[in-house]
Design brief:
It contains 15 helices and ten strands. It is an alpha/beta fold. The protein folds into two domains: 186 residues, D-Maltodextrin-Binding Protein, domain 2, CATH 3.40.190.10; 100 residues, D-Maltodextrin-Binding Protein, domain 2 (3-Layer(aba) Sandwich). The strands form three sheets. It has a five-stranded mixed β-sheet with strand order 7-6-8-5-9, with helices on both faces. α2 crosses α12, α6 crosses α10 and α9 crosses α14.
């Protein structure tokens, strides 16, 4: 019996050695990533693919294009994909419903109130009685932060002082350019387009946070996934994060790396392309740890107060458990 066991072990070891000599590697872990058909997530994943960063980290990325943010959420909840990009507000709301999603950082909270120089707006006070375009709707996060900032630093009820004008992002930009709107809040890549066309930032999200006593700019968007899935695929997820952050580093340091992305970015001009490139770089996370997680909690509290709990779905606080413990940046 012992001799037979030893013989079996010897045969197994020989088989393993012979198999190893064939040069065959184990299959890489596949991660199904849900993405919108446009936007910066595609740019990063394109760099990962072109540079072979996925293969270098022993993973295979299956990109699943989807049509809307709602479609992304449905795909994640229906187990059609493993990861999507969303914000920690969504994760917090889902966890309050006993759904075990978690968050790992993708980009910083960036944004600004942009103004048309011809409108002669040099401060929030100059917007009194005038229109302010808002692309994200009544509970747009930058709009809520701007209201909190105005109240705390200037004692101004911005919601009453201005005439909020809600419209789709392209229309907001058009109305700023033709002078109908003296100022606007839009998504970062639309702000970049305005910047390239001569519009100027009046107040950035970083300025707002500083005025609100939040010294650290937290990530807002992140990779979102089931915590059970993350437990089962911890090394693969860490490899994915490493690969995507290497892609960010390439895009941060090399203008040349952006050239293959031009068909994806679809800029209207070289100036717009340059502005979008710089806008993307402004959102790259360089540090992520306890300070950033604490800052996210502070922002959560402000957003909850300004929206009367609407944006947070009635969740009272941002639990640290929202943030996956498998990734940190020093």
């Amino acid at each position: 019996m012992r001799r037979g066991t030893a013989a079996c072990l010897a045969a197994a070891m020989l088989l393993a050695l012979l198999t190893g000599c064939t040069g065959e590697d184990s299959e890489p872990d596949t991660l199904r990533v849900g993405v919108l058909k446009f936007g910066s997530v595609n740019w990063e994943l394109d760099v990962v693919d072109r540079r072979g960063l996925d293969e270098a980290h022993g993973i295979d990325i299956e990109v699943v294009p989807l049509a809307s943010e709602n479609a992304l959420a449905v795909a994640l909840q229906g187990d059609r994909v493993d990861l999507i990009v969303s914000d920690w507000l969504w994760v917090a709301r889902q966890r309050a419903k006993d759904k075990d999603y978690q968050f790992a950082p993708y980009s910083l909270a960036v944004g600004a109130i942009m103004v048309n120089p011809a409108a002669e707006v040099d401060s929030l006070a100059d917007l009194d009685g005038r229109k302010l375009g808002i692309a994200g709707g009544p509970i747009d996060k930058t709009w809520l932060l701007a209201r909190a900032y105005a109240h705390q630093t200037e004692g101004v009820d911005l919601e009453s002082a201005v005439e909020p004008t809600f419209a789709a992002p392209p229309m907001i930009n058009k109305l700023v350019m033709d002078g109908t709107l003296p100022a606007a809040i839009n998504f970062w890549h639309y702000n970049a387009r305005l910047s390239a066309l001569g519009m100027e930032p009046l107040l950035s999200v970083e300025d707002m946070l500083d005025g609100l006593g939040i010294e650290t700019v937290p990530p807002l968007l992140g990779w979102v996934f089931s915590s059970d899935w993350a437990d089962d695929n911890r090394e693969a997820l860490q490899s994915f994060m490493e690969a995507t952050y290497e892609a960010k580093e390439i895009l941060a340091e090399s203008d040349e790396a952006w050239q293959p992305l031009e068909p994806l970015v679809k800029p209207e001009s070289e100036a717009v392309f340059a502005a979008i490139r710089e806008g993307y770089r402004a959102g790259i996370i360089e540090h992520y740890g306890a300070a950033e997680i604490a800052a996210a909690g502070q922002v959560f509290n402000i957003l909850a107060q300004e929206s009367d709990g609407e944006i947070t779905g009635g969740v009272s606080e941002l639990s640290p458990d929202v943030f996956w413990d498998g990734f940190r940046l020093q």
